[in-house]
Amino acid sequence: MLKSNEYFDGNVKSIGFEHKGDKATVGVMAAGHYEFNTAAPERMTVVKGALTIQLKDEDEWHTYQAGQAFQVPGHSSFKLEVKQATAYLCEFLD
Amino acid sequence: MLKSNEYFDGNVKSIGFEHKGDKATVGVMAAGHYEFNTAAPERMTVVKGALTIQLKDEDEWHTYQAGQAFQVPGHSSFKLEVKQATAYLCEFLD
Which GO terms describe its cellular component (chains A, B) (predicted)? Predict the structure, then answer.
């Protein structure tokens, strides 16, 4: 029911769950640089810490603090720069 | 650096991390009833879903929704009733 995932040699860990039919994960990223591909569109909310991200096909980087959110289109990708371990909520929008 | 934990036969899973010296975990509780003991005092924030809790030595139960938080004293305990899988942030205050 709760699904544990690890990426990037354990530097990103997440727990998948369903809440009232919504699929979501909460996770933590250790400091580092990452790139993720999306299947479904998703909304990422910073829970504690900060995420600096660049969406595919965009030049600019944006930083989101705890409580702030950004959306990523489906079948796309985004790059992340994480300066301190940061907790996030990822909600799948399909 | 990121520490995975499981409780109650995997019905509660969490990921421990440190952010700027603060110790915290994010996790998910599947629907169910749980009781946790605290060592350090902690602040629990609901990330997605809802938690209904009873602090030790209190008669009343309180429900907290996404974005709401409650504190639990150190060396104490609290009971939880979880109706739907719920994600939380736990920050240790010592």
Answer: cytosol
